[in-house]
Amino acid sequence: MTAEAPPAATRPARPRRSPWGIAALLVFAAITWWAASEEFGIGFDVIQLVTNLTRGSQIMGEFFPPNWDYLPRTYGPMLETFKMAVIASALGCGVALFISFLASRVTTPNPPTYLVSRSVLNVIRALPDLLYALIFVAAVGVGPLPGILALFFFNVGVVVKLLSETIDGVDTGPIEAARATGANRTQTVRWAVVPQVLPNYVAYSLYVFELNIRASAVIGIVGAGGIGNNINTERKFFNYDNLVVILIEIFVFVVIIELISIWLRRRLV
Amino acid sequence: MTAATRSAPARPTRPSTRNRWLATLATLALVVWAMATTGIDFERILRLPEGIGLLFYRMFLETGPEWSFLPNAIEGMLQSIQIAWIGTIIGAVISLPLGLLGARNVSGIFGSNVMRQILNAIRAVPEVILAVVVFIPMVGIGGAASAYAGTLAIGVHSIGTLGKLTAEVVEGIDPGPVEAARAAGGNTLQVQRWGVIPQVMPEIIAFWLYRFEINIRASAILGVVGAGGIGTSLEQAMTFSRFPRAGLIIIVIIVATILVDTASGWLRRRIIEGSTARIEAGDTEGLGSPLRMDSDAG
Amino acid sequence: MIRFDNASVVYPGGVTALKNLSLEIPDGELMVIVGLSGAGKSTLIRAINGLVPLTDGDIFIDDVSVRSASPRAMRELRSRIGMIFQTFNLVKRTTVLNNVLMGRLHNAGTMRSLLGMYRAEDVEIGMQALERVGIVEKAYTRAANLSGGQQQRVGIARALAQQPKILLADEPVASLDPPTSHVVMRDLQRINRDLGITTIVNLHFLDLAKVYGERIIGLRAGELVYDGTGAQADENVFRDIYGRSLTADDLMGEAASAAALPS
Questions:
Q1: Separation CA C66–CA C75 (nearest Å)
Q2: Interface predicted TM-score (ipTM)
Q3: pTM of the prediction?
Q4: Cα A33 to Cα A219: distance, rounded to the nearest angstrom
Q5: Do residues C48 and C25 make contact, with C-beta atoms less than 8 angstroms apart?
Q6: Mean pLDDT across chain A, nearest whole number?
Q7: What's the pLDDT band for B7 if we cut at 50, 70, 90?
Q8: Could C67 and B298 be called an inter-chain contact, meaning their C-beta atoms sit closer than 8 Å?
Q9: Which is it for the CA torsion C156, C158, C163, C169, positive or negative?
């Protein structure tokens, strides 16, 4: 008796390409065309880009050599930039810690508080730092104060969003345990939630500080103190050799801060 | 001889927290020093609420926002969105190969480090500075050219951040499929295409979308320095004290940004969800999750 | 004494977890609850300290109603009830002692507990609790660095630090290996006998239940279907409770009977 071969399985039909994928691609292409076209968009033309860049590099020649004599005049403003970043980060991260608990599903006291916090958060986050700077300069005058205020709001927006989402993901076991011992809300948050998110909080704070260093260098352009003021002055006079000095200075400064921050983060973990 | 009794283990001593205290004190000292030496007098701080309140009133309440400016504002906002869109695409396209090269498991330790430093260098300069110092002089001011400058500034800066994130994702992949591709005889390009890219694309695309959200804000700012988009209108409105118009522009910016954020956030979640299997924790008695902190029983 | 009076729990989705449960648990008793997953064991335990609200009926702890307790009264009630969990529910990132001191939070007051400045008496109580479960030398170790059995003992210490009258244990050994499970169950037995704390334990393994339970109650689909001693509970009883034949998964095996304290 010969063994029978197993019955041939019918081959499945090839699954059709998902319509969603194709639709998404089409939408993407359409938006890109719209954004780049001459008529509706910004008129992005790769060929023109290349010609511009070659012409531009001639202008770049004016940047060099950098005018290093200008450097000492930038020390004061850079220091102010640094201090603005420190103050705004400290205040912003401090306040953000408390607001984050209101804006997280896990630790909010009641649904209305949660909804209000998240809506306010979304509005605060929608404005970039420079726009806050513009507004505060108009409200309180020029100087570092509007800069600090602007960065403060920016920081609260960034940290609350990050931290509240971290809190959303905590292990809820310890929270249940704390409730079961008869602890109240504050105690529960302090001992069951905070220990879980503290490392993240510190990381976010350092991250925001790095962002602030970059931002505070810039907001002076609208009058909010720091080296941005110098940028504004020099660009109006087309002093590119001075501007390049500032550019390099900012670059070096940011890199140094970043290295320190990486070292700090490694020490904390 | 009696049986030896076990003595109770000694209680341990409390470990020293001196280092932590020092660090906290140092940070506090830094902050206090910064506050004290920044030269802001108290008087100005006290007048803060007044100044902000007055501005808010003039922008939104005195005559209401300048609604007649809405078409211009929308046009400006659309241009900002376009700038951000193209800028993000530039950043995404160029950062993909650069990011791959920046990963240790692609270029080795030395090569990837070089690339990472280059990417860090690009990242370190804020877009505004790039625009002001490099691209606007290069491309010139006025109309289409300024939008160009903004797009390039955003594009170049995005290469830096996206490149770094891409490299980190690529370093975190499962080496299995890559080995399989190599073992099947694929050359380097094929290994990348079939072994690496499928694993990392969802996360990378999510980063692109996130970057787009950030770039919307950046392009709104760039207008302030003359690089196109709605920022220009806002800067002019503020300079000429046309506060109702500024109020309207701010509203347009907030609404547009929130819309883009929501759409992009939804898309990001769909992409990530589609690529990872979600294992819901067993919840046999339906006790529900997450545990709420609100009203206790009774 | 804990008294269930027609207690019922219906979850928002429509699932009935407890149905008209009436039961009395005298002080100092060690009671074991058995039943299939989803039969209502967890719900019953959590109804006692109000973590799960009743939808009908009531529970009285020393004649104090659980269902009508204000939030403040509920916290007061809970401070006298210790609870240990299947997944231990420790804060992994902090020290063992800090975890145990969670049991003193209610007494310590908000200000002190916020700053972590516990009174010396509270720290002493915490240390003594750790000594009772035999891991005081780990007081300043990070909770994450302990084994499963050690973590559960920290959980027990945390409950003991409350100086509770009642101890609730929701599947305390389900995540532990057999030898460690016996250590933990023996600890619970000893605490029950030495300190006279009413102890209520959910158990998954039936042989373990038989050995450690002076009194066993069985739940099926939220209803009480058995109430008797460990000696009376045999295979038939368990089959009734489960509504099906026993499988290997229901027994821990491994000389369960040899490990318990003599009754």
A1: 11
A2: 0.89
A3: 0.82
A4: 33
A5: no
A6: 85
A7: low
A8: yes
A9: negative
Whether the pLDDT of residue C44 is over 90: the answer is yes
* A191–C87 CB contact, under 8 Å: no
β-pair partners for C60: C3, C65
Q: Which of C242, C229, C223, C176 is nearest to C29 (CA)?
A: C229
| Contacting C residues, span 50-69, partner chain B, CB-CB under 8 Å | 50-54, 66-69
Which amino acid is it at B105?
Answer: N
| CA distance linking residue C144 with residue C140, whole number of Å | 12
Q: How far is C28 from chain B (nearest CA, A)?
A: 26
List C-alpha distances in Å: A26 to B96, B147, C125.
21, 25, 68
The alpha carbon of B237 is separated from its chain's Cα centroid by a whole number of angstroms, namely: 28
- Amino acid sitting at position B248: L
Please, are residues A58 and A229 in contact by the beta-carbon 8 Å criterion? Answer: no
Cβ-nearest to B287 among C42, C75, C136? C42
What is the SS3 assignment for C60?
Answer: strand
Q: Which residue has the tokens 């970059």?
A: A214
* Cβ neighbours of C85 in B, within 8 Å: none
Strand-pairing partners, residue C64, are C61
Structure-model confidence comparison of residues C144 and A34, the more confident one? C144
A132 has pLDDT over 60: yes
Model confidence over C164-177: pLDDT tens digits? Answer: 999 999 999 988 99
Mutation test of the interface with chain B: which of A32, A38, A44, choosing the one with the most B Cβ atoms within 10 A? A44
**Least confident piece of the model among A2-6, B225-229, C246-250:** A2-6
Label residue B132 exposed, middle or buried (CB < 10 Å: 0-12, 13-18, 19+): buried
Q: Which residues of A touch C113 (CB under 8 A)?
A: 183, 187, 190-191
